[in-house]
Structure formats: C-alpha cells, structure tokens
Amino acid sequence: MAICFACCSTIMAQQAKIGFFSMQDLLNTDVKYQEAIANAQVLKQQYANEQKIAEQDFKEKYELFLEQQGDLAKSIRAKRQSDLQSLLERTENFRKETQQLIKKSEEEALSAVKIRISEAIQKVAERGDYLLIVNSDSETCPYINPNYSEDITEKISSVLSNP
C-alpha cells in the first residue's frame, strides 16, 4: 500500500503544474492601475493645495489678531480667540479627513485592480491547468524551483490586456 501511495504521489508531482507571478510587475504594467495612481496623485495635490490655503488663512488671521489684540475690548478679543481656535480645529479636521479620503480612494483603486488581476489569474490557471499559482513577491515562498514551475506573469498580463 505504501509503495502504491509513493508511486501515485510521484506521478501526481510530475503532472502538477505550478505557476508563479509577480504582483508588483503586474501592477507596474497595468494601465488601469497606473491611471488610478495618477488620479490619486492629482487628488493628493488638490487636497495639499487646499490645506495650504487653509493654513495661510489661519496664519493671516492669527497675525492680524496678534497685532490688534492689545487694542481690542476683552469680549472682542475672546471672540476672536474663539474664532481662531475654531478655524484651527476645522483646518486640522480637514487635514485628517483628506488623509482618510485619499487612503480610501487608493484602497478602492487597488482593490478594483486586484479583483481584475485575480480574475486573470483564474483564467490563466484554468487554461493552463495549473495546480498552484504563487505570488513570488512575498517572502512566504523564498524559492521556487524553475524546473517544476513556470513564470506566468506575462500570461496574466496578456489576459489583463485582452480579456
């Protein structure tokens, strides 16, 4: 019985096809991913510009307050301090919100691309009758014997280009 199992295991190992690919290579060559990255950069720049405007507005109002505070009535000075504090808090909240929005936008773009890549991997796996496909970018699989495996990055890329 043990001999039969060993023989079957050897035959299965010889027939099993293992594919590997580089997710980073796929991302670097994927047009939709590059567009998503470019869009995220534009969004980051727009938010950065708006943040600079808000910070400049606060700075100008604060400097004006510092110049005038000695001449202001106590109630007016307290109101302006409160207004400045409120403006500072809104500016900080805006900064935090924009960071979250940018992160969410990047995650959504990457998620959509990874779904497309996953579907392309599935097609390549089915067409090539692969038993296993491994992402070679991670350190979980530090060595893949080229005698028993095949780099299918180009095949996946081709499916992505021509679904």
Q: Structural class, from secondary structure content?
A: mainly alpha
Name the poorly predicted regions. Answer: 1-12
Q: Characterize the overall form.
A: rod-shaped
Biggest β-sheet: strands ordered side by side in the sheet: 2-1-3
User: β content, as a range?
Assistant: 5-15%
Largest sheet: 3 strands, parallel
Distance between the termini: 46 Å
> Tally of extended strands?
3
Mean pLDDT: 87
Give me the Rg, rounded. Answer: 29 Å
**H/E series:** HEHHHEEH
Proportion in helices: over 70%
Structure annotation, total helices:
5
Please describe the topology of this protein:
Layout: H1 2-15, E1 18-21, H2 23-29, H3 31-68, H4 74-128, E2 132-135, E3 149-151, H5 153-161
Parallel strand pairs: 1-2, 1-3
How would you characterize this protein structure?
- This protein is mostly helical and 163 residues long.
- 75% of the residues lie in helices and 7% in strands.
- The protein is built from 5 helices and 3 strands; from the N terminus they run H-E-H-H-H-E-E-H.
- It has helices at 2-15, 23-29, 31-68, 74-128, 153-161; strands at residues 18-21, 132-135, 149-151.
- A 3-stranded parallel β-sheet has the order 2-1-3.
- Helix 3 runs antiparallel to helix 4.
- The longest helix has 55 residues, at 74-128.
- The two termini are 46 Å apart.
Briefly summarize what is shown.
The chain has 163 residues and is mostly helical. Helices cover 75% and strands 7% of the residues. It has five helices and three strands.
Which structural traits does this protein have?
3 strands; disordered N terminus; mainly alpha; three-stranded parallel β-sheet; 163 residues
